[in-house]
Amino acid sequence: MNLRKSCVMAAGTLFLASTGIIGVTAPAVASPTPGTQTVTASDPWPSKAFRKGVRDGRRDGWREAREECDSPAKAMLRMRTYGESEYLRGYEEGWKRGYAAGFEEFCY
C-alpha cells in the first residue's frame, strides 16, 4: 500500500470517528412546542345560549322539513349562518336534528 492510500484511509477513519463521537456526545435537541392546545371549559354542560339555540333550531328545522320536503343536503345549503356564537352553534346543531326528524316523519 502506498503512502497516498494510507493517508486517505487514515483521514477517512479520523473523520468517521470524530463524527461518531460528536453524534454520540451532542446534546439532545429540544422538542418543539405543540402547535395547537386543547382548551376545555370547566363547565361540562352546554351554555344556556347553546341550549336555547338547539331548541329554536330544532323547532325551525322541523317546520321547514314539514313545509319543503327537500333533501337535508339541499336544505343545509339554504340555511347559512355567519359568525360564531354559542347560540348559533346550538341553532345549527338543533336545526340539523330537527330537519332530520321532520324529514323522516313527513317525507318518507
TrEMBL record:
Signal peptide as annotated in the record: 1-30
Record keywords, A-Z: Signal
Origin superkingdom: Bacteria
Span list, region Disordered: 30-66
Sequence ranges of Basic and acidic residues compositional bias: 53-66
Protein's name according to its UniProt entry: Uncharacterized protein
